[in-house]
Amino acid sequence: MRHARPLPASDPALGDLLVEGLEVHAPDGRTILAVDRLQVSAGATLGVQGPSGAGKSTLLHAICGLVPVAAGAVRWGGTDLAALPEAARDAFRRRALGLIFQDVLLLEELSPLDNAAVSAAWAPRAERGAIRARAAELLVRFGVPQSGSVGPLSGGERQRVAAARALARDPAAILADEPTASLDRETADRLVADLLAAARARGRTVIAVSHDPAMMAAMDRVIQVVDGRVRQ
Amino acid sequence: MTPDDLWRALSDPAQDLALTLALLLPAVVLAALALRGQAPWPLARALLLRFRWTNLLFVGLMALSVGLGGALLSQERALRQAAARAADPFDVIVAAPGDEVRVLLATVYLQPAAALPLLGADALRAIQADPRVSLAAPVAFGDSHDGAPVVGTTTAFLDRLAGPPTEGRPWRSASEALAGAHAAVTLGETIVPAHGHGDAAEPEAHTGAGLTVVGRLPETGGPWDRAILVPIETLWALHGLASGHAPQEGERLGPPFDPDYFPGAPAFVLSGERLADAYAIRARHDREGAMAFFPGATLARLHAVLGDVREAMSLMAVLTQALAAAGVLAGLVALARLFARRFALLRAMGAPRRFVLGVVWLYAACLLGAGCLAGLALGWASAGLVSAAVSARMDMAIRASLGWPEIQLAACAFSAASVLALAPALAAYRRAPVEDLRAG
């Protein structure tokens, strides 16, 4: 039997996240997020709470390099993501971060395994087998079938496929935006338990934006974002 | 060895294959650039399945444009080939001075024409005195039976044109006739030719002159297949003219003809033993009081004039394909937008912009490629149907089939479309993922 090569360590030296003097502006120049200082140790779990429109998602987008920042630094270990051009930020996310969104946006025409292993499509050929193997392993762990269509899956199962998709490359940090928002209590609890167990087992950092008090209670630390400002 | 020498050293199929591959090269290069190092097929397949009915419509549109172009061009080529094939047995035609094209149409294609001036005894003398002429057949027309032309000529020429009868036997008397392969008469049937053709035909003009069909000729693929062939002496007799032979010769049929009793013929078909003879014959009989020409050369001149039409048809085919491709690509831009949030998610996960470009390009290229292939199949299928219809109308066996020009046209269309497919791919490439993620 042929074994997939193990994934290369995603970025063991990623280190802590340190955000300093961060400002994100709207297209009209208005400041929509300002963070004086935020530090998250490698392997810690951080919850981000706050009212709708306060800037939680923008914070998440800024620390994963999806939005350009107007000022400040977003340092993951020695890498200042804010100073990198778009292609380099893409490459960094590809290498080091896993993302989960409230809207799972699965590809309905693909199987759960193909969805979970979708990042293999743009990975170097040598890594594709390992990504698929890990995606399959995660689906087994999360109790989701690998084959068939994703259409008949429940909301919780779909969100677990999305979690497996985020974890399939074994990223050093997982960023989640309202991952339990559309799930019932029981399903949400199971997803949080699965996600945190998988992350903690590998010493991975988790930063989750959520209105879900149960999820926040499971995190090491929780911060508030109000009117674009972080309150620790 | 120069590139020119190398090219000439290749066989025709090898040249065609090389040209086709060269035409596909832009698409191949683009594919290599867009897809290198990535595996976008599962995502492109998802797009193909997601919008399957719209995709089918796009493939159909592209197929229709490629198929239509292919069918038109193959038909035009088949028509030219059939026309050339039909003219092949007519080495040199000698007629009274006038319009070569008119004589060609009347003699080779049996197209009804106003009465042609006749070649007289002087021309006959010259022809019969020419040692290079191995076959000299007077041809006369102007009568018809149930819409089919009745043509007077000699058995020697019919032997050359079609070969011996496949049914029955050659005529042995002036009251017998042979049927062309597809002439609507039966063996043993007695016919009475009408004078003239179509609406102007006079069915009663030759009443009493019944001709019995005694044989059927093999198929030639030309208009003579629908004709009823009779000894030229019979046609002369029907019109109250001399028989072409001295009275003491009795009911003689065929050459040599006696110039003193020769009533004239609108055309002679001449052949020589060798190619050089044909040139000598044409030169010798193209003189005062007669014109001699190669039907093939006249046809080639006609085709050269019609070459512009072919160019126009090719251009129209390319334009139709370009319009279809543009329509499909505009539709793809809209469809790709429906997938924008999923692409945004992939980009958020770190997928390079080039990956999104590759997925959309591959999706578009699959549709356009499938359209071109389906178009070739459609062109192949429709060529047969159109050929049957045109054959019936033109009295010629037209066998259109897709050839290298149509394959190359489709290859060219695919390459051009694959370049244009960069448009929806670039539209997806340029989208900002955050805006699309927030749009949900």
From TrEMBL, chain A:
The keyword Plastid does not apply. Residues 17-232 form the ABC transporter domain. One of its GO terms (molecular function) is ATP binding. Keywords: ATP-binding, Nucleotide-binding. It holds the Pfam family ABC_tran. InterPro entries: AAA+_ATPase (IPR003593), ABC_transporter-like_ATP-bd (IPR003439), ABC_transpr_LolD-like (IPR015854), P-loop_NTPase (IPR027417). SMART domains: AAA. It comes from the Bacteria. Gene3D superfamilies: P-loop containing nucleotide triphosphate hydrolases. GO terms for cellular component: plasma membrane. Belongs to the ABC transporter superfamily. PANTHER family: IMPORT ATP-BINDING PROTEIN, LIPOPROTEIN-RELEASING SYSTEM ATP-BINDING PROTEIN LOLD. This is Putative ABC transport system ATP-binding protein. It comes from Albimonas pacifica.
UniProtKB/TrEMBL annotation, chain B:
Residues 315-430 form the ABC3 transporter permease C-terminal domain. The chain crosses the membrane at residues 17-35, 56-73, 315-339, 360-387, 407-429. It is found in: Cell membrane. It is a multi-pass membrane protein. GO terms for cellular component: plasma membrane. Keywords: Cell membrane, Membrane, Transmembrane, Transmembrane helix. It comes from the Bacteria. Its main location: membrane. InterPro entries: ABC-4/HrtB_transporter (IPR051125), ABC3_permease_C (IPR003838). This is Putative ABC transport system permease protein.
